[in-house]
Amino acid sequence: MYCVLIVDDEEHxxxxxxxxxxxxxxxxxxxxxxxxxxxxxxxxxxxQVDIVITDIKMPEMTGIELIEIIHERWKxxxxxxxxxxxxxxxxxQAIKFKATDYLLKPVETEELEASVTQIIAGLREEWGRIAxxxxxxxxxxxxxxxxxxxLLHDLLQGKKIDLPSLExxxxxxxxxxxxxxSLALLLIRMEGTFVEYDYHTLSLMEYAVGNIAAEVFADRxxxxxxxxxxxxxxxxxxxxxTPDAQDKNTLLELKAGELQRSVQLYLKGRISVLVSxxxxxxxxxxxxxxxxxGTLRQLAGSEDELVITMNSLTFAESSIVxxxxxxxxxxVLLESARWDAFREKVxxxxxELETRWSDSYEHxxxxxxxxxxxxTYIVHKNGWRFFELMGNDxxxxxTSRMTTVKALREWTYRVLDKIIEESEKGRKDxxxxxxxxxxxxxxxxxxxxxxxxxxxxxxxxxxxxxxRVYKLETGESITEYIFRLKMEEAAYLLKYSDKKIYEISGExxxxxxxxxxxxxxxxxxMSPQEYRDAMHRSG
Length: 539
Hints:
One of its GO terms (cellular component) is cytoplasm. By secondary structure, this protein is an alpha/beta fold. It has helices at residues 11-20, 37-46, 63-73, 88-96, 109-130, 133-142, 144-156, 163-172, 199-217, 245-267, 285-300, 330-335, 339-356, 361-381, 386-390, 405-444, 452-458, 463-474, 478-496, 501-507, 513-524, 528-538, and strands spanning 2-7, 28-34, 51-55, 78-83, 101-104, 182-191, 221-227, 233-239, 270-275, 279-280, 307-309. Strands 6, 7, 8, 9, 10 and 11 form a six-stranded mixed sheet that branches. A five-stranded parallel sheet has the order 2-1-3-4-5, with helices on both faces. Strand 1, helix 1 (11-20) and strand 2 (28-34) form a beta-alpha-beta unit.
């Protein structure tokens, strides 16, 4: 759906275009109104706008000046100029600032609708080109290093990607890796003077280390570089040829040492490098990565400039509840209110506990502490307290009851249900409070020149969001609500006051009494005078 902004210093013309045009037929969902160039710019800064329809002759800022600013700041916004003058100089200026159309006033509804329809067709075609496959491929090529790094980060953290999808991603990123490869993992820890750099400088140094690694390994290995959450540079390597196992290990260790020396020589910095054993990709990647992190922590410690190889080392099998730590994390799912995804993840954790650790109190407690930590985070972030949330269940954080997987499952889903219930209640209450504030503001300023921007400012929210929530909660748009209130106020004044119709029209900010009468008739099926006469006869 598209958004239109109408700009004219003559209010009745703005209202007339907004009310009499069949916008929904043209896929226009929102019509913003402004009565000066400055108001228009305020709306453009805070709201989505696709098409601006503006008069040329306006005080302070002309329509030409307005579209010049629009052309400079919002290049994709299309502009239609309205003027009462068939002046070629205006037309030349409109062309200069790329106005999409130029219409003479008074504008016929059919003519305006035809112009808007044509512009929307052009917008669809333009955005279709932007979203085309060729554009997507071009964007991917421009961002290959970042996309590769992000994919490696996800895989290291245990994100599950089915093999065909992973193959497709790697092919799209032009990577010489496949899901049947035997790879090794290098962890690179920046040390010495590197740790004293600020974030920007360190990022440049990490980029330089990656470039040096690409040069050092280029003759014998394909490499895939990324960065993990612990600020280690990570690098997957794959032989370009097929040497025997001993030569492959020796060569990889030599290359790691050469990388270390090159960084010292050219960047005047120190690094430690851990070289993993060879593993099957991608199935064994996460386990290899976790073992590598633990090994680097235990063997390197605070020492610098080490090269550690894991081929001769043996490790105890990991005993963590692995699915707890696979992305997305529980806190992420709660914070984004992805309740079903949270249930699915907990279900996978429960399955792992029942399969591997059903008799292990320690592992049940590991899961309990991680899940309760996520719950506590979201509860406190929302400004609640656990014991208030759970009501009579005062033992909600009592670990003595958490002795079985079944007890953990029941406790988790009970707390989750309460969080969902409170969240939905809070969301509804907040929205009702928002609607109340909006309606109170409109009622208080009914006799003012109300704009969507003014209304949104009163609740400190984006105008587009305010309009969407209001329509969702009340079933009518803000414009419809204002119109209804104004007509009700007009009816009251016609019945209980002696004010003339043009005075009532002016007070309600309808500068053209004929246009006011047209709107009143549409609401009450009679003219203002007919309504007044009918009320006097019945009263």
